[in-house]
Design a protein that fits this description.
The complex is a heterodimer. Chain A has ten helices and no strands. By secondary structure, chain A is mainly α. Chain A has one domain. In chain A, helix 3 runs parallel beside helix 6 and helix 3 runs antiparallel to helix 7. By secondary structure, chain B is of the alpha/beta class. Chain B folds into two domains: 218 residues, Rossmann fold (3-Layer(aba) Sandwich); 96 residues, 2-Layer Sandwich (Alpha-Beta Plaits). Helix content of chain B is 34%, strand content 30%. Chain B has a six-stranded mixed beta sheet, with helices on both faces. In chain B, strands 14-11-13-12-15 form a five-stranded antiparallel beta sheet. In chain B, strand 12 and strand 13 form a beta hairpin. The chains are: A mainly alpha, B alpha/beta. Chains A and B meet through helix 1, helix 4 and helix 10 of A and helix 2, helix 3 and helix 4 of B.
């Protein structure tokens, strides 16, 4: 038993596949473990599902807008909150249990670890946000008129917002609340400058410039393009800005976690 | 290359606190190396730097010849880690914890399942493999944690306080496993507060204090450095309430430590103390049930180097006033 310790070569799959494929496999293993372990945690349910649906209902009930036109708002909010909530739930809890150290001592790069965490956020965000699309199409007459725009909306937004959550999760804290609080200081103001409740065309020009900088603006607009209700900046700008934020947030999340490791 | 671990000027500064101060040492392949020190001495910080969890402020370390910072993947492939807290996934079953660890090390499916089964059987947990570990006792969680560290075919395992606070059954299983793995060629790097355990298990020990190595060598060699520290260990059939104070006043007794029902009287002249103890017992109608003369223990070395006695057992200490 355990005789393989006598040989000096660790058992890994490296020889039978490339380093890149190995990193992808490990990232997927981390993502699936996070899904099994953390998707049903109260903090994930509250900040990822309850929060966006409650906000949506607060601002939509009583307004004279057809429900089909409000579906893109709900899609954008759920993508925004659900995707960005997984990192801030998972990482502080893993830090408290010291299970995050397992990743730091495993023979994988920090990039793979954070990609796994980001992937868990992406799947959560997409899984929750697809519900309003199905409900809108099935019951409220919504029509998917631009599949490409909707796919870009889901793919880029879930990546950008999940990475945003991972970036905030680098804040040293051992409870989700310690990360959610500063994250909400960013998330909630973005709701009001992103054309969710007031059309961007109705805003003064300086507010339109601010809206352009908000990633949520482009999620809302791509969702509207996808469901045929149109936007202000145009899908090319929407995709470019969201793509830019996705790259920026992924890069920043890695940098912040490396800085964190130096302080530990 | 015979070194399993090589620390080269490892330094860790937390703001104004210098936790580890220019630490250099090496451990040999195939040995059980004990890393001892009082609380706050820098043991865990050192392990965190050696295993790549934390980055050193200065210096570096090599694991099986691989630099932990510049060749971190190769270095990490060589090691298994058991931290001071059992960092397992409480929401997952024992089986899933091990299989997930296998995935982290990218073991092929068949191999990770074979290893998981083998290790769960080895640690007596196979029958409970499907249960979520949150219902497990502390000792069982510790065993799972050690099993997770052995999923990869490591060359070295770092164990931070592996038996601290565990039930006797778990302690015995863990010690036996450590010995067995070491006999099979695995290098063990262990920190412990239990100096008796270190003395019995370790080929070499290092004592760290205030972030610096205070001494390093085999337990017997370290004991010889405090050769003057001799003691007489006694126990009475019925211990009088004021025995500690009375014994403290015996001539030639420098210090007394009470551990359980035993008293240990430190002296430079054991024969004279033995005579005094005999007289004390006669005068007070006490029956002596244990009388031993002892040389210095690893604990004595630890105390003489660090100035503090490890708090692993209930001890009552009294130093004679001059």
């Amino acid at each position: 038993m355990m005789k393989d310790h006598l040989e000096n070569k660790p058992i890994t799959n490296t020889s039978r596949s490339g380093h890149f494929v190995r990193e992808i496999r490990v990232a997927w293993a981390i993502a699936t473990k996070d899904m099994l372990t953390y998707y049903t945690k109260p903090a994930a349910l509250m900040f990822g599902i309850l929060f966006p649906f409650t906000l949506f209902l607060s601002f939509s009930i009583g307004r004279d807008i057809p429900l089909a036109q409000q579906i893109p708002m709900l899609i954008a909010q759920t993508l925004f909150f659900a995707s960005s909530s997984i990192g801030p739930v998972v990482i502080p809890m893993e830090r408290a249990n010291q299970t995050f150290d397992r990743f730091l001592t495993a023979p994988v790069t920090l990039l793979s670890v954070l990609m796994g965490k980001t992937l868990a956020g992406i799947i959560y965000g997409v899984g929750i946000s697809i519900i309003p699309v199905i409900v809108g199409v099935a019951f409220f007459g919504s029509q998917i008129v631009n599949v490409g725009a909707l796919v870009a909306c889901f793919a880029l937004s879930s990546l950008a917002f999940s990475a945003l959550g991972i970036m905030f999760a680098s804040i040293p804290g051992q409870t989700p609340g310690q990360v959610m609080m500063p994250l909400n200081f960013v998330r909630i103001p973005l709701l009001f400058i992103s054309g969710l409740f007031t059309p961007i065309g109705d805003l003064p020009s300086w507010m339109q410039a601010v809206s352009l900088l908000s990633p949520l603006t482009h999620t809302v607009e791509l969702a509207r393009y996808g469901l045929g209700t149109g936007g202000f900046f145009g899908p090319v700008i929407n995709i470019a800005v969201l793509g830019g934020y996705a790259v920026l947030f992924v890069f920043m999340s890695i940098r912040f976690h490396i800085l964190n490791q130096r302080k530990e | 290359m015979d070194n399993a671990v090589e620390a080269i000027g490892l330094t860790k500064q937390f703001d104004k606190v210098l936790a580890v101060d220019n630490l250099s040492f090496s451990t040999m392949k195939g040995e059980i190396f004990g890393f001892l020190g009082p609380n706050g001495a820098g043991k865990t910080t050192t392990i965190r730097m050696l295993t790549g969890i934390s980055r050193p402020t200065k210096g570096t370390a090599k694991i099986m010849g691989y630099n932990i910072q510049t060749q971190s993947i190769s270095a990490k492939e060589q090691m298994g880690i058991v931290p001071d807290v059992s960092n397992i996934y409480n929401e997952l079953s024992a089986w899933d914890n091990l299989v997930f660890t296998g995935k982290l090390y990218d073991l092929p499916k068949e191999l990770r399942e074979t290893k998981a089964e083998e290790l769960l059987k080895m640690f007596g947990l196979y029958e409970r493999r499907r249960e979520k570990v949150q219902g497990f006792s502390r000792g069982m969680k510790r065993r799972i944690c050690i099993a997770m560290a052995l999923m990869n075919k490591s060359s070295i395992v770092f164990l931070d306080e592996p038996t601290s606070g565990l039930d006797v059954q778990s302690v015995l299983i863990i010690r036996e496993t450590i010995r067995k793995l070491n006999q099979e060629g695995l290098t063990i790097f262990i920190t412990t507060h239990n100096l008796e355990e270190a003395s019995q298990m370790c080929d070499r020990v290092a004592i760290i204090n205030h972030g610096k190595i205070a001494a390093i060598g085999t337990p017997e060699k370290l004991k010889r450095t405090v050769q003057g520290l001799q003691s007489v260990e006694i126990a009475f059939e019925t211990t009088p309430i004021n025995a500690l104070n009375d014994l403290k006043e015996l001539p030639n007794t420098r210090e007394i430590v009470k551990a359980g029902d035993k008293f240990r009287l430190f002296t430079d002249d054991p024969s004279s103390v033995l005579a005094s103890v005999w007289n004390y017992a006669q005068n007070n109608n006490l029956k002596l049930v244990t009388v031993n003369t002892l040389g210095p223990s690893l604990e004595d070395v630890f105390v003489s180097l660090t100035g503090s006695r490890p708090a692993t057992e209930e001890t009552n200490r009294s130093v004679k006033s001059k």
